[in-house]
Amino acid sequence: MYNLYNMIFKRKSFRRFNNNLSLSVEELQEIEQQINKLIPLLQDVKIKYRIVKRQETTCKRGEYCLLVYSEQKENYLLNVGYILEQLDLWMASRSIGVCWYGMGKPDKLQYDGLDYVIMLAFGKGRPEEFRKDYTKAKRKDLEMIWSGEHIPDVTNVVRFAPSACNTQPWRVVCESGHIRIFRSTEVRSIIPKEKLPFYNSIDMGIFLCFMEIALRYTQYKFKRILYNEEMYDAEQLEIAQYTIH
Ligand SMILES: Cc1cc2nc3c(=O)[nH]c(=O)nc-3n(C[C@H](O)[C@H](O)[C@H](O)COP(=O)(O)O)c2cc1C
User: Fold this and answer.
1) Low-confidence residues of the chain: pLDDT under 50
2) Could you say which architecture CATH assigns to the domain 138-244?
3) Which ligand 1 atom is nearest residue 162's CA?
4) Which residues approach ligand 1 with their CB closer than 6 A?
5) DSSP state of 40
C-alpha cells in the first residue's frame, strides 16, 4: 500500500475507455491477487468482492466492474473507501483505468450474506491517458480544507483524493503533531442530501488512505484513532486523528 505515493499523481477517473483494448487473463488474475493484498482499515468487518462484466450491471463504462459487498458495521463505509482506493492507485500503476461508480446498480444486491455497497468500473488504458499534471485537477483551495500547520509533501497532496461528485468533504486541522480529520456536513452537491452521508463516508475512507500513504512516504510514523459514529457531534463530524512523530 505504501509504495503507491506516485500513483496519486497519475490516477484519474476514467470515463472514456478504448473498446479496442481489453484485459488479459493474466491481468485479471493479477487483479484478483492484488485484491487479496489490500489492507483493511477495520479488521472485523467482513467484505467480499466480485468482478463481473460491465454488462451485468447498469454501468456504461469500462470492461469490468468490481462489486463490493460488506457487513454493515460501525464505520464500514470508511473501510470500503480506504480499501478500494488502494486498488484504484495500484491499477493506475498497471495502466488500468478506473472510475468509482456510485450511480451504478449491480445484478445482485446481496452476496454471501453481505450487502452491496459500491462498484469500481475498470478496463485497460494506455499510459498516456492517465493524469499528466495533477495540479490541474479541479479541487478546492487548500485554505478551505486545511488549517494550522502544513506538512510538506502531505498537505498539498492529499487534497487530490477522489470523491463522489468531487464534493471533497474532508477538513483538516493540524496542530502540534496532531492531524484532526473532519467530514463537513455543509457540502453542496447534486447528490440528494439524504445520500450525502453514505457517499461522503466512503470519500473520507479514501482520504484516510491518501493521508497514510503520504505520511509514510514522508517517513512520518503515526498513530491513528478512529471515532465511532455515535461520538460524532452534529456540526463537527470528527472522523479520525493522527498523531505523528
Ligand atoms: C464514492 C464515489 C462515487 C463516484 N461515483 C461516480 C459516478 O457514479 N459516476 C462518475 O462518472 N464518477 C463518479 N465518481 C468519480 C468522481 O466524480 C471523481 O473522483 C471526482 O470528480 C474527482 O476527479 P478525479 O477522480 O478524476 O480526480 C465517484 C467517486 C467516488 C469517490
Assistant:
1) none
2) 3-Layer(aba) Sandwich (3.40)
3) 19
4) 12-13, 15, 99-103, 137, 162-166, 199, 202-203, 206
5) P
Confidence (pTM): 0.97
> Which of 101, 157, 207 has the most ligand 1 atoms within 8 A of CB, as the residue to mutate?
101
What is the CATH superfamily name and number for domain 2-129? Answer: NADH Oxidase (3.40.109.10)
The alpha carbon of 203 and the centre of ligand 1 are apart by a number of angstroms equal to: 10
Q: C-alpha cell of 84?
A: 478500494
User: Using one digit for the tens of pLDDT, what is the confidence trace for 15-42?
Assistant: 999 989 999 999 999 999 999 999 999 9
Identify the residue whose cell numbers are 453514505. Answer: 198
**Measured in angstroms, how far is the CA atom of residue 150 from the centroid of ligand 1?**
27
Q: What is the DSSP string of 166-205?
A: G---EEEEEETTEEEEEE-S----SS-GGGHHHHHHHHHH
- How far away, in angstroms, is 243 Cα from ligand 1 center? 30
Question: pLDDT of 225-243, one tens digit each?
Answer: 999 876 555 666 999 999 9
CATH topology identical between 2-129 and 138-244: yes
- Closest C-alpha among 19, 137, 32 to residue 94: 32
Q: What are the residue ranges spanned by the domains of the chain?
A: 2-129, 138-244
Please give the number of the atom of ligand 1 that sits closest to the Cα of 165. 17
Q: Atom 31 of ligand 1 has which residue's CA nearest to it?
A: 163
For the chain, the straight-line distance linking the first and the last C-alpha, in angstroms and rounded, comes to 20
Q: What is the pLDDT of residue 159?
A: 97
Neighbours of 207 (CB within 10 A): 29
**C-alpha cell belonging to residue 172:** 483538516
